[in-house]
Amino acid sequence: MSVFIPEDSPREECGVFGIWGCEQAQVFTHFGLYALQHRGQESAGIAARVSPTGLRLKRDMGLVSEVFSAEDIVDLESDAALGHVRYSTTGSSSAANAQPLVVRMKSTSVALAHNGNLVNARALREGLESSGSIFQTTADTEVVAHLAARESAKGIREGLLAALQQVRGAYAMVVLTPDGLFAARDPNGFRPLCLGRLGSGWVVASETCALDAVGAVFVRDVGPGEFLSIDDDGLTSGHIGDAVGKPSLCIFEYIYFARPDSDIAGHNVHLVRKQLGRLLARDHHVEADVVTGVPDSSISAATGYAEEAGIPYEMGLVRNRYIGRTFIQPGDALRQRGVKLKLNPLRKVVKDRRVVLVDDSVVRGTTSKILVRLLREAGAREIHLRISSPPYRHPCYYGIDTSARGQLIASERSVEEIRSMVGADSLEFLSVERVAEAAGGDPSEYCVACFMGDYRVPIDPDGDKDSLEGSP
Ligand code: AMP
User: Looking at residue 349, what DSSP letter applies?
Assistant: First the structure.
C-alpha cells in the first residue's frame, strides 16, 4: 500500500531553546540556536520577555547568522527568551510558519516553539476550524495554541496541559509567557529535550550541545510525558496526563540527526556512532586498503569501523563547510547538485585503492549514488559501501523529514538491488538490534519505525487517508 503524505504535511526537523532568569537571555538564546543550527536551517526565531508584561519577536527565513542583526539582539534584551530553528518540507516552507509562534491568550502574550510532529494535528485543526477558529499558519504549533486558548479559563499553564492531553505524536515543546517558561516532552519521548542550570537561571534545549554553548550545567533530560513549569519561584515538574507511552526515543537522533558532542539519555552521540562503526566492521568485514567516511555525520562511525577492522582511516572526501546539509534544501534537483558541490574526493588518497565508504544512512540513495561515482572517477579500485544503520524503509511521522515512501530507495528493494543502483562493489547495512545495542538498549526502547514500520503512535486515519500501513 502506498503512503500518502499531503503536500503541506508539516513534518518538521527543529531545534528549541528556552531560558529563564538570566541577564542577557537573548544573547544566550542566540548562541543556543547557533549550536542547534544542524537541526533546522530554513528559519530561525527568538521571542524574548522585554518587559514584565510583553514579549518581542524576531523571526525570519534563513540561518541564525542571517536572521539576527546585532541591533535585533540589543532590541530583544531580556532575562527570559525562547528560540527555534526549523526545517520543513517544501509545502510548509514559508515565513508564516517560522517559529516561535506568538499569540495572545487571556490578554497575555504567549510564545510557542516545538520540535516534532503531531499525528492528529489535521483532525484537531479541522475540528477547531469547524467551530470557528481561524488559522494563520500550517504548523502544528498553532493547533496547540488554539486548544490551549480554549482551555485557558483557569490559566495558561492549565490551558497548555489540557491542549497537550489532546495531541498525539512527537513533540518537544517550549512555551514562554511574561510570567513563566514551560517545557514538555511527549509521553513516548520521541524527540530529545534536556534541562540545564545557568547561574540561578534555567535552560531547556533540544540537545546538550546547546547547554555547552552557553556554559550551562546539564541537570537531566526532560522525561517522557514530563511538564516543567519554571518561574521566579523556581522549577516544578509535573505530568502532561495519565497516559504513559512506551519509551520511544528516535534512534535516528543517534544515527544521524543530533550533534556528536551531545549526550542523549546518558549516551554520547559520537561514541554511539563510533560503536555503530565497530559493530558494522564486526558484522560486515571486507578486505580493503582504506576506510573513509562521509563528512561530517559519518566520521564517527567510519573511525569506529577502521579501528575495529584494523584498516587505516583516511580523509577520502572533503566537505565544503559553507554549504548547508544537502538534504536540507527542498527539491530534488537542488539536492543532487548540492551533493557534488559539497563533497570532493581526495584523488591521491583513493586512487588505485580498495575503499570502504562508511555512511550513516541511505534514504533516497542520492548521496551514495553520487559519491560512488565520484570515488570511481577519482580512481578508486573497489568501493565497499557500509551503512551504520538498517535500510530506511518507512517514512517518519514523528519529526524527521524523509519524504514519501516511494522516494525511499530501500522501501521496496533488496540490498542487492540497492547496491546495483548505487553502483558499489558491495553494500552492507547494520541490523536494528546492533543499532540499539550501540545505544545501550534493545530495539523496544527506541522508535525504529523508519526501519521496521512499527509506528507506536498510530498515524491519524483522518489526517492521512491512505497511510495506515505500518500502524499497529
Ligand atoms: P540520501 O542521499 O537521500 O540517501 O540521504 C542520505 C544522506 O543524507 C546520508 O549521507 C545522511 O548522512 C544524510 N541524511 C540522512 N537523513 C537525513 C535527514 N533527515 N536530513 C538531512 N540529511 C539526512
Answer: H
Q: How many structural domains does the chain have?
A: 2
Kindly give the number of the ligand 1 atom that is closest to the alpha carbon of 401: 19
Same domain as 269, residue 243:
no
Cell reading at 370: 553520487
Query: Could you tell me if 178 and 275 lie in one domain?
Result: no
What residue type is assigned to position 264 of the chain? I
The reply to whether ligand 1 has any atom less than 6 angstroms from the CB of 275 is: no
Backbone φ, ψ for residue 307 (5° rounding) = -60, -45
Question: Do both 243 and 157 map to the same domain?
Answer: yes
Phi, psi dihedral angles at 273 (to 5 degrees): -65, -40
Confirm whether 325 is domain-assigned.
Answer: yes
Q: Are residues 238 and 269 in the same domain?
A: no
Residue 338 within a domain:
yes
Domain that holds residue 60: 15-248
The minimum-distance atom of ligand 1 relative to the CA of 294 is: 10
How far does the centroid of ligand 1 lie from the alpha carbon of residue 125, in Å? 31
pTM for the predicted model, two decimal places: 0.92
β-pairing, 226-231 with 180-185?
A: antiparallel
- CB distance 300 to ligand 1 below 6 Å: no
User: Are both 200 and 313 inside the same structural domain?
Assistant: no
Domain end: 248, 280, 295, which one?
Answer: 248
**Position of cell 476550524?**
129
**Cα 241 to averaged position of ligand 1 atoms, centre (Å):** 35
User: All 3 cell numbers of residue 279?
Assistant: 559493530
Write the pLDDT tens digit of every residue in 76-89: 999 999 999 998 65
Same domain, residue pair 210 and 288? no
Check pLDDT > 70 for residue 329: no
pLDDT tens, residue by residue, 203-249? 999 999 999 999 999 999 999 999 999 999 999 999 998 777 889 99
* CATH number for position 195: 3.60.20.10
Report the separation in Å between the CA atom of 362 and the middle of ligand 1, taken as the mean of its atom positions: 6
User: For residue 167, what is its C-alpha cell?
Assistant: 495531541
pLDDT at position 32, please?
98
Looking at the annotation, which residues are catalytic?
14
Alpha-carbon dihedral of residues 10, 15, 21, 26, nearest 10 degrees?
Answer: -90
Burial of 287 (0-12, 13-18, 19+ CB in 10 A): exposed
- CATH number of domain containing 321: 3.40.50.2020
Both 104 and 154 in a single domain?
A: yes
User: 364 CB under 6 A from ligand 1?
Assistant: yes
